[in-house]
Amino acid sequence: MNILTFDIEEWFHILDTGVSRDEAMWDSFEARIHANVDRILGALSRRKGQRATFFCLGWIAKKYPDIIRKIDGYGHEIGSHTSMHQLVYEQGPARFESDVKDSMRRIEDIIGKKVVLFRAPGFSIGKNTPWAFECLARLGIQIDCSVFPAAHGHGGFREFGRGEPTIITYQGMSLKEFPINLFSFLGKNLVFSGGGYFRLVPYPLLSMLFKRSSYAMTYFHPRDFDASQKVIEGLSMARRFKSYYGLQSAFSKFERLLEEFSFSDVSGAAATIDWSNAPIVKL
Ligand SMILES: [Zn+2]
To answer: How far apart are CA 67 and CA 219, in angstroms?
Structure first.
């Protein structure tokens, strides 16, 4: 089971800098999202049957509704990535819920379909924020893809303990969860299926890791393939490396991946699972 997902945000929506917190600054940056989304849609349309889920910001839907319409028009599914791309554990329950609600409303107004899929910015739902799953269920989200079950710059959720489709239960509610997959090697859990990790790993190794994984959840951003973007000022050395390493070759690697493997969207994958036998994680 290989699942293709994209978080649809601008090149400057990087969470490790004040820039990402301050919407007032966003309009002063160059818009690169149109060309970057077109590049992805073009690659997918050249390979028949490749389906993807696009987790879109409500901010993008408000500013560029044509992008949401175009993704939907190509037959891909659309989920929410909140409206304002803030860290969930910094927002707290009330702000988080209204942010997700706003994004769902904006996307639904454009595509005329209910939004039932979600991914949090920076995978920022963890063991201290189980209330976030409750908020999502209350809003009608049926499948969440926010769990990063390893250490991550924004916390991750190492205690989750599973890198496979799971049912989350918390205070009487339940939600289907598709976490990022892990590859166990020499006692370590490795991530390879998205972002900086994908750009770091050479293609032959990447191909081998995909072949050996019965479940792979990819996560890409339009900026992951944009070698001409400016470098955001003020990032730590580590974050700078992770954000910009391997940009020149990332898109050709992505295209090779599409040639070699078949991908489905999240709903397509969910439909093939016998959920009555899926593992349950009680929070
Ligand atoms: Zn994001």
So the answer is: 19
